[in-house]
Amino acid sequence: DGGDQRQAPRFRMSYDPREGGDCYSLLEQYVHCDGIHMIRGDATTAYGDMLDRCWREIVFLPPDRFVVYDNLLTNGARVQRHLQWMLHSAVPMHDAGTHVEVRGEKAKLIVQPVHPAGWTVRFPDRLARAAAYQQSEIREAYAMSLYPEWVHIWNESPSKPPYPQWDARGGKRVYGPDYQFLVVLSPVRAEQPIGWQLTPLKGDTIEGVVITDGQRVDTVVFQRSGGPYALGDVQSDAEKVVVREVGGQVRSVAMVNG
User: Fold this and answer.
1) How many helical (H) and strand (E) elements, i.e. helices and strands, does the chain have?
2) pTM recorded for the entire structure
3) Among 129, 92, 140, 114, which residue's Cα sits nearest to residue 201?
4) CA angle at residue 236 from 251 to 148, to 5 degrees?
5) HSE-up of 6 (CA within 13 Å, CB side)?
């Protein structure tokens, strides 16, 4: 807008997160090599009043696997917040116990939450129903909501009931301020069973998953902060590490900032 600060903030079109305007997203850290593609979406400034970090990491493992990692850091606002990971679809979803299935006529999407542990899923009724502008037609979508064992993060602590989560007098925080969601998405044919296994990886500031599918083993690790670490078969200091193996032989490796 030519730097005219008199305009209402919602009309500003700055894409520089340091400038402080309405920078709603930033795509960065695109890395690709044989068999591995990954990118980060930074939407922190879209949630500036609630979050100090809102990153979505997407790792594509051809031909049929996506690892989605949401890395959130809540700020110190004295408000109640409810964090959930949502997915919308034009076709029905259902809870299959260990995963969620989004089923079409010829194909289905297997949604497998890995982190947080103890997750619960629900399907909000009519949450995604909306009327298109200047149209009488009602467009409806199905939605799933994935959330941790807790619901509201400033509710009373199970170990220190007199104080809410934002209050330091409660001692050690039971939850947060870092929150992570790691979900594996696998589009397959409608009749195909789940023939792979997921093994969660978890450290103090690290989340990851090992995906074993026959002779193929894929390891994906994300580090939020800290230095060198050893987790599973990975020893590194990188923010992101992806290793693809077939028959015990490493075929592809990619890392970011390590």
Assistant:
1) 0, 20
2) 0.81
3) 114
4) 95
5) 0
